[in-house]
Specification:
This protein is α+β, with helices and mostly antiparallel strands and 702 residues long. Helices cover 22% and strands 25% of the residues. The two termini are 46 Å apart.
Length: 702
C-alpha cells in the first residue's frame, strides 16, 4: 500500500474477525529498537480514558481485544506483533491507531525498512506498507483500523511526530497529571514487580524493573514530556492541528514539574524473591506437587500428561492461555480445553491430543492440538489428517507442540492445502521452551491476577522443567552434527553439502532457544540478531551460512539483550573445539586513554581472570589486547602506543566445546548454555550501560 490508501478487510479475506499487525524495522548494528503503542479512539477521535492507551507496561486494552505480543524473530531481524480481536472491540471505539516511538533522543531516520504488515486469522498476509520520510521524528503512526458502515477498514498513515510519544498521546486525549506527588506502588502478596519511568527526554514507556522486597515503587501516571510546555499536542509531520489562542505568558517562570505516565495495570502477583524456609525434617522429603512426574514411564504417558497439564492451566489462568493463543489469531474470550477427543476421519476415527476452544460474542474459535515430548518428531500423516478434519469441520487452526523450534521458511511438517476448500486452516507450532518462557515471564516478572494463578503457573513450571517430563526444548543437533565436525577436522566437507545446511538450521534453533531461556530468567527481551538484506529468502540465507561453515569451520550468532550496551556474540569454532562469547562496549566518557582503561578494569572487578580484553581504536579496528589477570596490575598494556583514539573494548571468554550432539553434560548444547550463562553473569551484568543523556526537563528553566 501507499501512504494515505485504505482498504476494506473483508475484501481481502473472509477470516478477519481476528487480525495480526506486525511493525518491523532494521538497523546496521542490529541494536536499533522502538516501542509499540496502540490507542483506541471514540467517535470524537479521543481515548475514553488512559486505559485505552496500550503500551509496554499496559499490553492489553479494549477488554482484551487488543494485545501486544512482543517481538518475534523474522528473516529480516525481528518485528513487534499486535493481536486484534476486531469482533470484540468495544462498540464505542471507532478507530484504532497503531504507532511506535523511539527514546533517548533517537530518531526513526536511524532505522531502515520501516514497515507494517497485516495478516488474517489464518496467518495469511493481507497488507504491507513501507513508511518513508521519517528521518527526524521520534514517533510514527504506521496505520489505523477504523469502522465504516459496520465494516473494518485499514488506512496506511505514515505520519511522524517530532515531539515523540508525548505529543502523539496528548493529541489523542491521553490525560496528563502535572502534580508532583507520586502514588506509591503497591506490593503484591508474593512480591509484585514495580515499574520505573524513563527520563523525560525519552517520550517512551519504561520497562518494568524488580524492586527490593518490600520497597514501594513510584507508580507512573502520564505520558512523559520532552520539555516544559511540550505536553501541548505538537505539530506532527504532515498533520493538521487546529490553532488555539495562546495563553498569556506568566510573569515568573513556573516551576518545572515532572510529567507522569498513564497509570498502569492493576496489582499483580509474582513469585517471592526469596524462598521460604522448609518445614521438612530432612532434605529427602519432597514437597507435594499438583502435577507429579515420578510415575511417568513411557513416551505416551509423558505426552498425555504434558498435554493435559498445559491445557488445563491455559483454561484456568487467562493471562497464560491468552499469551499462548493470541499469536495464532484466537479471540480474547472464555477458553475451554479438552483432551483425547475422538473425531471421525474416514473408516478410522482420529484422536488429537487436545482441543482448545475460545468463545467470544457467540462465536467459537477452535484449534486441534498435536503434542510430542522427548526427542519424538511430529508425524506428517498425523498433522495432515488433523488439518483435513479441521477444514471439514470449520475449525480455525491446528497447533503442534514439541521440543523442536520452528524456523521461518523451514516448516517442521509439510502439509498439503486443498485450494478448492473455501475454509482455510492455519498450522502453528509451539516449542516447549516457548511455553516455559511465557510461564516464567508471568510469574517471575510481569505478574498474574491472583495468588492461585501464580501457584498454578509455578506448579506448571516445576513440571515442565523436571527431567522426567520430556518437555526440555530443543536438545539434539541432529544426525548431521558428527559427520560435519569430522568433515571439518579432515577438510573433506565441501560447499553445497546438505548436512552443513542441517547443522546451520539446528544452530539457529539452538540460538533461539537460548534467547527464550535467558529472556525468561532475566525478564528482558532477548532476541537473535540477523544481519540480512531486505527481503532476503531465509533458505538462501541459511545456504550461504552453510557454505561459510564449510569454508571457515565456525558457527556464528549474535543476540541482543535489552538494557546491555552491545550485542552478545557467540562463536563455535569446530576446528579448535572452542566456544567464544564476546561483547563490544563503548569506551567511557572522553578522557586520557589510560584513565578510560582503568575505568573499565574497575567495572570488571568481579569478572573472571581469564577474560580477554581487546582495545578498539578509531580507523584501525583492533589494538592491543590482554587478559584481565595481566591487566589488573598493568592496565597500560592495552593503551595504543601510537596515540590512536580508543572507541571501545571487546570483552571475550573462551570455553571448551562439548563433543556430543545432545544436551548431556558433555554435549554441545549444554556447553553453549553454560558459556552464555557464565558470560552474562560474570561479564555482561558488570558492564554498566552508557550513562543516559540528561533529560531536558531536568535542565534549569530559562
Amino acid at each position: 500500500m501507499v501512504k494515505g490508501a485504505n482498504v476494506g478487510l473483508t475484501a481481502l479475506s473472509e477470516n478477519v474477525g481476528s487480525v495480526m499487525v506486525g511493525l518491523g524495522w532494521s538497523s546496521a548494528t542490529g541494536e536499533g529498537d522502538a516501542d509499540v503503542s496502540v490507542l483506541l479512539l471514540d467517535g470524537d477521535g479521543k481515548v475514553r480514558s488512559d486505559d485505552d492507551f496500550c503500551f509496554y507496561n499496559n499490553p492489553v486494552a479494549g477488554n482484551g481485544s487488543v494485545q501486544l505480543l512482543g517481538k518475534t524473530p523474522t528473516a529480516d531481524g525481528s518485528e513487534d506483533r499486535i493481536s486484534f480481536d476486531l469482533d470484540a472491540v468495544p462498540q464505542e471505539i471507532d478507530k484504532v491507531v497503531v504507532a511506535a516511538s523511539r527514546y533517548g533522543g533517537s530518531r526513526f531516520g536511524e532505522l531502515d525498512d520501516l514497515r507494517l504488515t497485516l495478516a488474517d486469522g489464518a496467518g495469511d498476509g493481507l497488507v504491507r506498507f513501507a513508511v518513508e520520510e521519517a528521518d527526524e521524528v521520534s514517533a510514527v503512526i504506521f496505520g489505523e483500523l477504523y469502522r465504516r458502515s459496520g465494516e473494518w477498514k485499514f488506512r496506511a498513515v505514515g505520519q511522524g511526530y517530532e515531539s515523540g510519544l508525548a505529543g502523539l498521546a496528548t493529541d489523542y486525549g491521553v490525560d496528563i497529571d502535572d502534580t508532583e506527588d507520586e502514588a506509591p506502588g503497591e506490593t503484591g502478596e508474593t512480591g509484585e514487580t514495580g515499574e520505573a519511568e524513563r527520563s523525560a527526554e525519552t517520550g517512551g514507556p519504561e520497562r518494568p524493573v524488580q524492586p527490593e522486597q518490600g520497597q514501594p515503587q513510584p507508580q507512573p501516571e502520564g505520558p512523559v514530556a520532552e520539555a516544559p510546555g511540550s505536553l501541548v499536542p505538537a505539530q506532527p509531520t504532515g498533520a493538521h492541528v487546529d490553532e488555539a489562542p495562546a495563553p498569556p505568558a506568566p510573569e515568573q517562570p513556573a516551576p518545572v514539574k515532572p510529567a507522569r505516565r498513564p497509570r498502569t495495570a492493576k496489582k499483580k502477583v509474582t513469585l517471592p524473591r526469596t524462598t521460604r524456609k522448609s518445614l521438612a525434617d530432612n532434605e529427602s522429603w519432597r514437597a507435594a506437587r499438583l502435577f507429579p512426574v515420578s510415575a511417568l514411564k513411557s513416551d505416551r504417558e509423558r505426552e498425555t500428561r504434558a498435554t493435559s497439564v498445559v491445557l488445563s492451566v491455559m483454561a484456568q489462568v487467562p493471562e497464560f492461555g491468552r499469551r499462548l493463543t493470541a499469536g495464532f489469531g484466537a479471540p480474547a474470550g472464555r477458553m475451554e480445553t479438552f483432551t483425547e477427543v475422538t473425531l471421525p476421519h474416514g473408516e478410522s476415527p482420529r484422536r488429537p491430543d487436545g482441543v482448545v476452544r475460545v468463545e467470544r460474542a457467540g462465536k467459537l474459535w477452535t484449534a486441534l492440538v498435536e503434542t510430542k515430548t522427548n526427542g519424538n518428531a511430529l508425524k506428517p500423516d498425523q498433522v495432515q489428517a488433523y488439518m483435513d478434519i479441521a477444514a471439514r469441520r470449520g475449525y480455525e487452526a491446528v497447533i503442534t507442540l514439541s521440543n523442536d523450534v520452528a524456523l521461518e521458511g523451514s516448516p517442521l511438517v509439510d502439509v498439503r492445502i486443498d485450494g478448492r476448500r473455501k475454509h482455510k486452516v492455519a498450522l502453528w507450532h509451539l516449542s516447549w521452551a516457548e511455553v516455559v518462557h511465557q510461564a516464567q515471564m508471568l510469574i517471575r516478572h510481569e505478574g498474574v491476577g491472583n495468588a492461585a494463578h501464580a501457584w498454578l503457573l509455578q506448579e506448571l513450571l516445576h513440571y515442565l522443567q523436571h527431567e522426567n517430563s520430556g518437555c526440555h526444548g530443543f536438545q539434539n543437533m541432529g544426525a548431521a552434527w558428527v559427520p560435519v565436525r569430522r568433515g571439518i577436522d579432515d577438510e573433506t566437507l565441501c560447499q553445497g553439502d546438505a548436512r552443513a545446511l542441517e547443522v546451520i538450521e539446528n544452530w539457529e534453533r539452538l540460538v533461539r532457544q537460548v534467547c527464550l531461556r535467558l529472556g525468561g530468567e532475566l525478564g528482558q527481551k532477548v532476541l537473535p540478531v540477523q544481519r540480512t538484506r531486505r527481503g532476503s529468502d531465509p533458505r538462501a540465507r541459511r545456504t550461504e551460512l552453510a557454505d561459510h561453515l564449510c569454508e571457515q569451520g565456525r558457527l556464528n550468532a549474535e543476540i541482543r539483550i535489552e538494557g546491555t550496551p552491545g550485542v552478545l556474540a557467540i562463536t563455535a569454532d569446530l576446528r579448535t573445539a572452542k566456544l567464544r562469547t564476546s561483547i563490544e562496549v563503548p569506551a567511557a566518557e572522553p578522557g586520557y586513554p589510560l584513565s578510560r582503561v582503568k575505568r573499565l578494569i574497575r567495572r570488571l572487578a568481579e569478572a573472571p581472570a581469564d577474560l580477554h580484553i581487546e582495545t578498539l581504536v578509531e580507523g584501525q579496528g583492533t589494538g592491543p589486547r590482554g587478559t584481565l589477570e595481566r591487566l589488573r596490575p598493568e592496565p597500560a598494556d592495552i593503551v595504543p602506543k601510537d596515540g590512536a583514539q580508543i572507541t571501545g573494548f571487546r570483552l571475550s571468554l573462551f570455553k571448551g566445546m562439548g563433543n556430543g550432539r545432545g544436551s548431556a553434560e558433555t554435549g554441545f548444547i549444554r556447553s553453549v548454555d553454560q558459556a552464555v550463562d557464565r558470560f552474562h553473569a560474570q561479564v555482561v551484568a558488570q558492564v554498566e550501560a552508557p550513562a543516559p543523556r540528561r533529560s531536558r526537563s531536568a535542565e534549569p528553566a530559562g
